[in-house]
Structure prediction request, 288 residues.
Amino acid sequence: MGKKVAPELKTRLQAINDEMEFYMELFNIPESKNDDDDESDYLLDTDDEAKKQHMKKMKESEEDKEHRLEVKKNKIAGKHMGRKSKAGTDSNKAERKKLKKEKLLKEKLKSINMMAIKQERGKLIEHKPLDVKKEKKPEPIFNAEGKIVFSRVQLDESDVQKRGIETDTKKLLKKVIDNKKQLAELKQSGDLEKYAEIKKKQAWEKALAKTAGQKVRDNPELLSKKIIQRKKQIKKSKENWKERQQKVEHQQNQRQKERTANLKERAQKKKNTKLKKMAKKGRIIPGF
Prediction:
């Protein structure tokens, strides 16, 4: 056993020796002590030296403290004097601040009072439902003839046919001719009073109609001219209508002819293409 333990210890001691040599080289520690070398270079500071340095610092710091206190006192005194001088220059500043604070307090109190009053009113007043106004139904509108108008757009009075006014020229002409015959008969019979009375009545009616803005149509010549003109217009409109019908028929026939021609041409093209294909395949077709 002893023989085996000896080499193991030797190897351990060799490893420790190598490690110590490494650290000595790392920290530049000399192998032997000389008188010139100072141990303090290789050793850490002791507690005594630290205490001495601390005491020196304490002594120095007390002097510095006194000096700093004096400097601070001077600074505080200077600031205090500066504030006093500023206060002396602006003496109304403090009063203004007080007034501002009082104003803000008054506004806050006022708003609080208003809120309290509103709450009290809300409690006292009973909320009643509002009366909803019912929409009135639109009343029916009547025209000059007394008939109900269903549309909202009302026509002008001139466009609406007035009651008791004749517009047909044939009827007006017949009325004028009958009136003339009646007056002529009365005059021939010798009843001049009735003749004069009817004449006067008709003159008043004519005058009142003119003042009301109505057009009096009692001239037989003008009425007959109007009838003839109307007949011509009807005749012309009939002719125009016939021409229009003939034109429409002609256009339809023309379009139909074009359509049939196009269809024939298309059918012929299809037929020709088929015949060409058949001829290419080897069929004997005349013309291809």
In short: Residues 156-160 have pLDDT under 50 and may be disordered.
